[in-house]
Amino acid sequence: MKNRVRELREARGWTQVEFGNQLHVSRQTVYAIESGMYDPSLPLALAIGKLFGEYVEEIFGVDSGHSRGGRVWKHKR
Amino acid sequence: MAKPDGLFREWSRRYLFEYLTALVLCIAASWVCIPLARAASSQSTRLSFLAAPTAAILIMTIVVFRHFRRVDEFLQRLMVNCFATAGAFTLVWTLSYGIFEIAGLPKISMWWAFGGAVLVWNLSMVRAIAAMRR
């Protein structure tokens, strides 16, 4: 899943450690989220949204239909 | 409170301290109790002596569980993945070797199953940590 976490974090001048400390997650987790390696849980995604003052859907978006966390199924219409 | 160098290092430091303490306790209990158990005359005394290292192993399990509860969701997922890899490896190799034993290969101790699982668990963790250092 693509996201704007790195862009929003850098805009606020926070390092990965500073950002992670505010969410009580490790720098490694911040890196994994920013690189798209890991999709955060709903509570963590909501906490990220609250920290940035933006809606979750404005930060996280579905890209090409695939995610490392699992396949995003396309519904037949 | 989080240190400036990050939560991961703080969690790892606490885990290492607790784990090594439990490991030393386990080794000490084994070192003292196994010879005593071997020398004991009755089965009940032997079992009582061998319960001490088992209690230390339980403490090690609690330490691993405490670490699991302490870390964040991504690290929890990595830990579960590493446990699953070790479990799958142990299932495959013990079952395969069990079949080969029918063909005449020597019967081996259960320590080999444990050692294999711990080896794969640690290798998986090292690989995961190395991937995160990029």
Walk me through this protein's architecture.
The complex is a heterodimer of chains A (77) and B (134). Chain A is mainly alpha-helical. Chain A has one domain (2-60): Orthogonal Bundle (434 Repressor (Amino-terminal Domain)). Chain A has helices at 5-11, 16-23, 27-34, 42-52, 56-59, and strands at 2-3, 60-61. Chain A has a two-stranded antiparallel sheet with strand order 1-2. In chain A, helix 2 (16-23) packs across helix 3. Chain A is globular. The two termini of chain A are 23 Å apart. In chain B, helix 3 packs antiparallel against helix 4. Chain B is mainly alpha-helical. The radius of gyration of chain B is 19 Å and the shape is flat. Chain B folds into two domains: 1-71; 72-134. Helix content of chain B is 84%, strand content 0%. Chain B has helices at residues 7-39, 43-70, 73-102, 111-132. The interface between A and B is medium-sized, with 16 and 14 residues.
The largest chain-to-chain contact, stated as pair and per-chain residue counts, equals:
A-B, 16 and 14 residues
What number of structural domains do the residues of chain B give? 2
The averaged pLDDT of chain A comes out at: 84
Nearest-angstrom radius of gyration of chain B? Answer: 19 Å
- Order of the strands making up the biggest sheet of chain A: 1-2
Shape of chain A: globular
Strand content of chain A: 5-15%
CATH superfamily of chain A, by name, is: lambda repressor-like DNA-binding domains
Instruction: Give the CATH topology of chain A.
Output: 434 Repressor (Amino-terminal Domain)
Average pLDDT rating of chain B: 89
Question: Distance between termini of chain A?
Answer: 23 Å
What is the count of β-strands of chain A? Answer: 2
Number of helices of chain B: 4
- Over the alpha carbons, how many angstroms does the gyration radius of chain A reach? 13 Å
CATH classification class of chain A: Mainly Alpha
User: Which percent bin holds the helix content of chain B?
Assistant: over 70%
Indicate how many domains the architecture of chain A comprises: 1
Low-pLDDT ranges of chain A: 70-77
Write the element-wise H/E pattern of chain B from the N-terminal end onward: HHHH
What is the oligomeric state here? heterodimer
How much of the sequence lies in strands of chain B comes to under 5%
